[in-house]
Amino acid sequence: MKADRARRPVVGVMLQSKEGFVEAGPEELAAGERSMWPANNPDFWPVPLRTAVAENTDTPSMVAAAPAAVRGVVAAARRLDEHVDLIVGGCGFMWAARDRLAGATSTPVIASTLDLLDFVLGMSSQPVGVITYSAAALGELVEEHPERARIRLLGLDELPAWSALGRTDYVARGGWSRAELGRELVGRLAESLCDGGELAAVNAILVECAAVPVFRAEIRSVTPLPVFDVFSLAAAAMA
């Protein structure tokens, strides 16, 4: 497939092992129901989409960087390899597998928006904000980063609707809606940008949580700061 340089590119997304996420090729995804999440919604992407489900990557396992979850991410990347032209992580905490992913495929891989962390930190001397599902868990992952003092974390897992997304069966159990998620995100972000808030001094924002990019319009209603997320980067790279 990759030998045909004239064909249309394909992007591959490694999905979490959660309700509603299935492994599928471009034709199946194009003909199926539409998800609200960019990770498995072909309408978000300017090129055909292929998905692979990473086993053992429910939110608790991914947040904890469990060894089985890391193995699941690497295995999903390898299944996408040779079938796509760029592989993207569908959960920001897939960054925990970055060392294992290095050299595991011949296809370029962006495991997480966190792969952009050093780049954005290098853009200025100011702090950088990261919107994450779990600030506590991400804090552990970046604890040894040489610029840790400039990395400001904003977690969403304590918000009622956002906390519901952490369950594997979040669709069936409910307790959230797109509108509720948007309202909670706007309120939390606005609060964090005020004096004394977690992101008060930042001059750029990274979106680690893969559920957040769908709310770009809501984020923009709160702040004019540059906002980086892995899906927008990948879509631009493949357009």
Give an overview in words.
The chain has two domains: 102 residues, 3-Layer(aba) Sandwich (Rossmann fold), CATH 3.40.50; 116 residues, 3-Layer(aba) Sandwich (Rossmann fold). By secondary structure, the chain is α/β, with parallel strands linked by helices. It is built from eleven helices and eight strands. The two termini are 19 Å apart. The mean pLDDT is 93. Helices cover 33% and strands 13% of the residues.
Task: Using brief descriptors, characterize the structure shown.
2 domains; alpha/beta; 4-stranded parallel β-sheet; 33% helix; Rossmann fold
Short overview:
With 239 residues, the chain is an alpha/beta fold. 33% of the residues lie in helices and 13% in strands.
Topology of this protein?
Elements: E1 11-15, H1 26-31, E2 49-53, H2 59-63, H3 67-80, E3 86-89, H4 98-101, E4 109-110, H5 117-121, E5 128-132, H6 135-141, E6 151-155, H7 160-164, H8 170-173, H9 178-193, E7 205-207, H10 216-220, E8 227-229, H11 230-238
Parallel strand pairs: 1-2, 1-3, 3-4, 5-6, 5-7, 7-8
Mind summarizing the main beta sheet?
4 strands, parallel
Strand order of the largest sheet: 2-1-3-4
Tell me roughly what share of residues is in helical segments.
25-40%
Helical segment tally? 11
CATH topology of the largest domain: Rossmann fold
The total count of strands amounts to 8
Mean pLDDT: 93
Strand content: 5-15%
Listing every helix as H and every strand as E from the N terminus to the C terminus, the arrangement reads EHEHHEHEHEHEHHHEHEH
Distance between the termini: 19 Å
The structural domain count equals 2
Give the structural class: alpha/beta
Using the CA coordinates, give the radius of gyration.
17 Å
Q: Under the CATH scheme, which class of the largest domain?
A: Alpha Beta
Please name the CATH architecture of the largest domain: 3-Layer(aba) Sandwich
**Low-confidence runs:** none
Characterize the overall form: globular
